[in-house]
Amino acid sequence: MPEILEVEAARRVLEERALNREIAKVHAPDTWFMKRGTTAPALRHALVGNAFTAARRRGKQIILDTENPDVRVGVHLGMSGRVLVDDEEAGDPLVYASNLRMVKWHRFGVHFADGGDFMLRDPRRLGAVELDPDERRLGPDAMTLTFAQLDHALAKRIAPIKAVLMDQHRIAGLGNLLVDESLWRAGIAPGRLTFTIDPAERKVLHKAIRTTLRTLDRRGGSHTGDMPRGLDAPCPRDGAPLRRDKVAGRTTYWCAVHQH
DNA sequence: GATGACCTGTGA
DNA sequence: TCACAGGTCATC
Prior knowledge:
By secondary structure, the protein is of the alpha+beta class. It is 26% helix and 21% strand. It folds into two domains: 4-136, MutM-like, N-terminal (N-terminal domain of MutM-like DNA repair proteins), CATH 3.20.190; 139-254, Orthogonal Bundle (Helicase, Ruva Protein, domain 3).
């Protein structure tokens, strides 16, 4: 579920509710979930007696700083991750079909000395926790993307525009839904080869990305776009039946009439 | 770069 | 039973 808007909502909850609380216990039962050599003992050693002091975000990566400047924890929500603080859902308005208290879905978390906790629930296990995440892997954050940054990200690319926009190394934060919505608003076909997009179109695209992020954030998430995600659903702009294709390996909806 | 793999749940 | 899911990674 999470693209940058949902991750930002989760980050905000962590910032509001999980900072400056002493960590008494670490919950890290899932070896698979810990990436890049991170282990449960290492997490315990780093976190017990410590406290988070900041919840930052770059793209879809959440970074928790602690009182120990050498200890930073990277948290990724993957496809199905959600943050829970003190047993409450964190800032995600989506209604999940089965929102049961599935403790076995708690892939990582901490218990605070005050009795509360922060848990990462992730049924699909495609999220991750790691110590000392490498933030340099990620491009400029989509929420604050300037035109110059976008222009640079697109420079000399041959790949379809959708693939470039979803490449976290170039721009961090845009996922499948936000990219489809942005391209639909910009009137650019997802399979369009990036180098053919002229400066005027880049301006339009930049504006569309900004508007999409702002609007969908206000509405409550990545799934609240104007373009319906359904084969043959009418395009709200011109009534043409929407197409469904695979672009950059992902299911893509678009309007062949107004997106070129 | 495109492709498939990773893992598990949900709904048709 | 099958297709699909809002992400990322390794591999050709």
